[in-house]
Design goal:
The chain is α/β, with parallel strands linked by helices. The chain contains 36 helices and 22 strands.
C-alpha cells in the first residue's frame, strides 16, 4: 500500500529516513517538477468572478448553446462562435488574481511546471515581489527549450493558454489524444520525465487521460533513487486512490495543495534562491556588486577547481577507466606523465612572461590519458595557489557574456576545457573580446579534430602539444600502481612487473589498463566476454550510452536513456564490477550518462551484434528528437550537438551500421525529415552507394536529396553537400564537360556568416545555387 499522509498530522516529517532526507534535499536544490490541474486555481478569481472547474464551465456553456447536458466540453466548445470563445473562455480565465494556493508556489524553487489549466493564475502569482524565480510561459505547441539555470522556471500550458487564444484550446480526451499523437515536443518531454523525475501532482484526478498517459510507464522500480519521492495531493481520495498511488510509486497526501505547501514550508523553512546554490568559492571570485544573473550564468558553465580535497582511498572508478575526480588526483592515483610537466611550464610562462599565446591544446588519440593530464595540471596549479576553472558547459558557452564575466575577476586565471573542439570557436571569440592578458585556456581533444580546431581558432596564437605514448617508466609505474591496489589479474604482472610493463610500451594508457585488469587478453576478447555475460537490458543501455558518448562527449541524458530501455538491473550497472558499467558524466548533477571506460565502449560498438547496434541507433535518434529544433541547434544544446554527429554518414553511420545505414535513415525519417542535416547525410549515403555500385539512379537520388536539404534550409552546410554531389555527377563517365571550368565557387563573408555562390555547368546545362 502507498505511503499515506493526512493533512494536519505532520506526516511529511514522519517519512522514512532516506525519503525524508531526499525530500528536503530535492526541495532545496529545486529538483521537483509540478503537474497541476484546475483544483489549484479554484481559489483564484478575475473580473468575472471566481474561477470554475471544467464541469461547471461545461454546464454554463450547455445553457448558453442549448446543448444537451451529457455533451462533452469539447463538443460544446466546438459549437461556439469566435465571439463566444473570447467572452466565455478567454475572458473568463484571463487577467486573474491568484488565490492563496497559487501564491505559495513562487516561494519554492521548481525545475518545471506543467499545467492543464488555460488560466494565467500562476503567471500572476509570479508577478508579485519576493519570488525565488522568474517565469517563462510556453504554449504546448511551442518548440522545446531547456533553460540553462534555475533563475527562471518554465510553465508549460498543456491545454492552451488565455494569453495566446489564437492557438486554440484543448478540452476533450479525443482532442488531447490527437495532439499527443502528433509527437508534440513538450508532451514527449513530460512523458520521458514523469517515470523517473520527482513530481508533485495536484489539482487533478489520477484517471484524467492526460495524467494516465504520462504515468503509464511509471512503476515502483522506475523513479531515480537520488531524488526526492513523488506525491499525489488529493483532498477527496476514493477507495482506489491508494492502490493507484502504489502502482505509480506516489505518496498519497490526503489534503489540499495549500495544506501540502504549508506543511512543506514547515519542514524546509530555509529555502533559498538559485543564487544561493552557487558554490561559495565561485561567488568569491566576483565583486559583491556584480549582478546575480551574471554569476549564475557563469557558474552554470564553469566550476572552480579546488585547491585541496581529501584524497580518495580507493579510486575504483578511475582504476576501471573513468576520468579522475579531484579526490583521485589528491590521492596520486594517476601516473606521472612527462607531458603534464611541459604543459604546466607553458602555462606559467604564458601568465608570468606575458606571452602572445594564451592557449594550449593537448591533441592525442582516444584513451591516451589526455583528460587525466589536463585535470592533473589544473589540480596542481590550483594546489599551488592559482585560480583554476574547469569548463563544465554541455552547450556552447556564450563568448560575450563569458568575456565580460572573466574581466570582472581580479586574479590571473587558468581555464581547463576538455573536449575542446566543441568550444573552440567560442574560446577564440573570448580571447579576442577579453580585455585582460592574464587568462590562459588549456584544452584537450582527440587528434582527429585538429583541422576543425585550427580552422576555428583562425589567427589566434596557440600551442598544440602531444606526447602521451606510454614509455617504459610510465608503464612500470602503471603496473606497480595496480599491483599495489590488488587489482592486477596477471601473475606475470605481480612476479615480473618490468617484463609485463615492457609489453605495454606504446599502447594508449586506457588499453594498457585493460590488459592489466584482464591478464593481457586482447582487447576484442575482453569486449566479447563482458558483452556476453550482460543481460539484454544492460547491453541496450550500454550501447546507447556508448553511441551517444562517441557522438557527444556528455553522453545521453538520464531520462532519455531511461525512456528507451528497460529498468531491469539499472542500479547495478552503475557499479564498477558490472560487465558493462555506466557512470555519470556530471557526477554533481547526475543528468548525463556515459560508459565507465570510453575505450572499451567504442570497441564494443564495433564488436556488438549488428541488430543490437541498429536498435541503439534508432532508440537514440527517436529519444532525442523532441529536444532538437532550430533554436536548440542555434544554441548548440547537448541533444542538437549529439544529433549532428549521430546522422554523420562518413564518420559514424558507415563505421558502425555499415549495410544497415539505409534502413536506419528510413526508419527515423518521420521525426527527422524537417532537419536539413538529415537529408544531407542521406544524400551522402546514396553518393557512397553510387561510388560502390555505379548505379546512376543512386547518384540521381543523392542529388535530389541534397537539393531537398537546401530547400529545407539554404545554409552553407547543405549548399556544400549539394556542391559535392553535383561535382560527383559531373565526373560521370561519358558526360561532356563544358570547355570552361567545371565548377566556379565563390566564397565571401557577409557579416559573420559565409555566403556561397556555386555555379555548375554540365552538358550545356547550368545549375546555380
Amino acid at each position: 500500500m502507498a505511503d499515506l499522509i493526512v493533512a494536519g498530522t505532520g506526516g511529511l516529517a514522519k517519512l522514512e529516513g532516506t525519503k525524508l532526507a531526499a525530500l528536503k534535499g530535492s526541495v532545496r536544490a529545486g529538483e521537483y517538477n509540478l503537474f497541476l490541474g484546475a483544483g489549484i486555481s479554484l481559489d483564484a478569481a478575475n473580473a468575472k468572478g471566481p474561477l470554475v472547474s471544467g464541469g461547471t464551465l461545461k454546464d454554463s456553456l450547455c445553457k448558453l448553446t442549448g446543448a444537451r447536458a451529457s455533451s462533452s466540453l469539447q463538443r460544446v466548445f466546438s459549437g461556439l462562435t469566435p465571439h463566444q470563445v473570447k467572452e466565455h473562455i478567454t475572458e473568463r480565465f484571463a487577467r486573474c488574481e491568484p488565490g492563496p494556493t497559487a501564491l505559495k508556489f513562487p516561494s519554492y524553487l521548481w525545475r518545471r511546471i506543467f499545467t492543464l489549466n488555460i488560466d494565467d493564475v500562476l503567471e500572476a502569482a509570479y508577478k508579485r515581489p519576493g519570488n525565488l524565480q522568474n517565469v517563462r510561459s510556453y504554449h504546448f505547441r511551442d518548440a522545446f527549450e531547456e533553460l540553462r539555470t534555475l533563475e527562471t522556471v518554465p510553465i508549460i500550458h498543456l491545454h492552451g493558454w488565455t494569453d495566446q487564444p489564437e492557438r486554440g484550446y484543448v478540452f476533450a480526451r479525443s482532442e488531447y489524444a490527437r495532439v499527443m499523437a502528433e509527437a508534440n515536443a513538450w508532451m514527449t518531454i513530460l512523458a520521458d520525465l514523469m517515470p523517473v523525475e520527482p513530481f508533485i501532482i495536484g489539482g487533478t484526478a489520477l484517471d484524467e487521460i492526460d495524467l494516465e498517459f504520462y504515468l503509464a510507464r511509471r512503476s515502483a522500480n522506475s523513479p531515480r533513487e537520488d531524488r526526492g519521492p513523488s506525491f499525489f495531493v488529493e483532498p477527496h481520495p476514493d477507495i482506489q486512490t491508494p492502490q493507484e498511488c502504489t502502482r505509480y510509486e506516489l505518496i498519497l497526501y490526503h489534503g489540499t495543495m495549500l495544506q501540502f505547501l504549508d506543511e512543506l514550508a514547515e519542514l524546509v523553512p530555509e529555502r533559498q534562491g538559485p543564487f544561493n546554490l552557487v558554490a561559495g568559492e565561485t561567488k568569491s571570485l566576483f565583486p559583491d556588486a556584480v549582478a546575480k544573473n551574471v554569476v549564475l550564468s557563469f557558474a552554470n558553465d564553469f566550476d572552480r577547481v579546488p585547491s585541496g580535497v581529501a584524497p580518495n582511498g580507493q579510486a575504483l572508478k578511475f582504476s576501471y577507466g573513468n576520468p579522475p575526480d579531484w579526490a583521485d588526483l589528491a590521492g596520486h592515483w594517476d601516473v606521472g606523465r612527462g607531458l603534464g610537466s611541459r604543459v604546466r611550464s607553458m602555462i606559467e610562462a604564458m601568465i608570468t612572461d606575458n606571452l602572445a599565446e594564451r592557449l594550449v591544446v593537448i591533441l592525442e588519440e582516444t584513451g591516451s590519458g589526455k583528460t587525466t593530464v589536463l585535470r592533473r595540471v589544473g589540480f596542481d596549479l590550483a594546489s599551488s595557489g592559482k585560480v583554476v576553472l574547469e569548463c563544465s558547459a554541455l552547450s556552447r558557452v556564450d563568448p560575450q557574456s563569458t568575456a565580460e564575466a572573466l574581466d570582472l575577476i581580479d586574479d590571473p586565471l587558468i581555464i581547463l576545457v576538455d573536449n575542446f573542439a566543441e568550444q573552440a570557436s567560442s574560446i577564440a571569440n573570448v580571447l579576442v573580446t577579453i580585455e585582460r592578458n592574464d587568462v590562459v585556456f588549456v584544452g584537450a581533444e582527440r587528434s582527429y579534430r585538429k583541422k576543425h580546431i585550427i580552422r576555428s581558432l583562425g589567427d589566434i596564437p596557440h600551442r598544440i602539444v602531444d606526447g602521451l605514448d606510454l614509455v617504459q617508466p610510465e608503464a612500470s609505474q602503471l603496473v606497480q600502481a595496480y599491483v599495489n591496489r590488488g587489482m592486477a589479474a596477471s601473475q606475470q604482472a605481480v612476479k615480473f612487473p618490468a617484463k609485463f610493463a615492457a609489453n605495454l610500451v606504446g599502447e594508449p594508457i586506457a588499453v594498457a589498463c585493460c590488459h592489466i585488469l584482464n591478464d593481457m587478453r586482447p582487447l576484442d576478447a575482453i569486449v566479447n566476454s563482458t558483452y556476453q555475460v550482460a543481460l539484454q537490458a544492460g547491453r541496450d543501455r550500454y550501447l546507447i550510452a556508448a553511441l551517444a558518448q562517441f557522438c557527444f562527449s556528455g553522453g545521453v541524458r538520464y531520462e532519455v536513456l531511461a525512456s528507451k530501455t528497460q529498468r531491469e538491473g539499472w542500479a547495478e550497472q552503475f557499479t564498477s564490477d558490472h560487465p558493462l558499467p555506466l557512470d555519470y558524466f556530471d557526477p554533481g548533477r547526475r543528468n548525463f550518462i556515459v560508459p565507465l571506460n570510453a575505450t572499451l565502449a567504442v570497441r564494443t560498438l564495433e564488436r556488438a551484434p549488428k541488430e543490437d547496434i541498429a536498435r541503439a541507433f534508432e532508440r537514440l535518434a527517436f529519444g532525442i528528437a523532441a529536444r532538437v529544433n532550430r533554436e536548440t541547434i542555434r544554441k548548440r544544446a547537448p541533444e542538437a550537438r549529439l544529433a549532428g554527429r549521430l546522422f554523420d554518414y562518413e564518420d559514424v553511420i558507415r563505421r558502425f551500421l555499415r549495410e544497415q545505414a539505409g534502413s536506419f535513415y528510413s526508419r527515423v525519417r518521420p521525426v527527422w525529415q524537417w532537419n536539413s542535416r538529415y537529408w544531407e547525410q542521406v544524400a551522402l549515403y546514396y553518393l557512397a552507394r553510387y561510388r560502390s555500385e555505379r548505379d546512376e539512379l543512386l547518384l540521381q537520388q543523392s542529388v535530389q536529396h541534397a537539393r531537398h536539404a537546401v530547400a529545407v534550409e539554404p545554409h552553407p552546410f547543405p549548399l556544400t553537400t549539394l556542391g559535392k554531389v553535383l561535382l560527383a555527377q559531373l565526373g560521370q563517365p561519358g558526360k561532356r564537360q563544358n570547355r570552361r571550368s567545371p565548377k566556379q565557387l565563390r566564397l565571401s563573408r557577409r557579416g559573420a556568416a559565409p555566403a556561397y555562390t556555386l555555379t555548375l555547368r554540365c552538358s550545356g546545362a547550368r545549375s546555380s545555387i
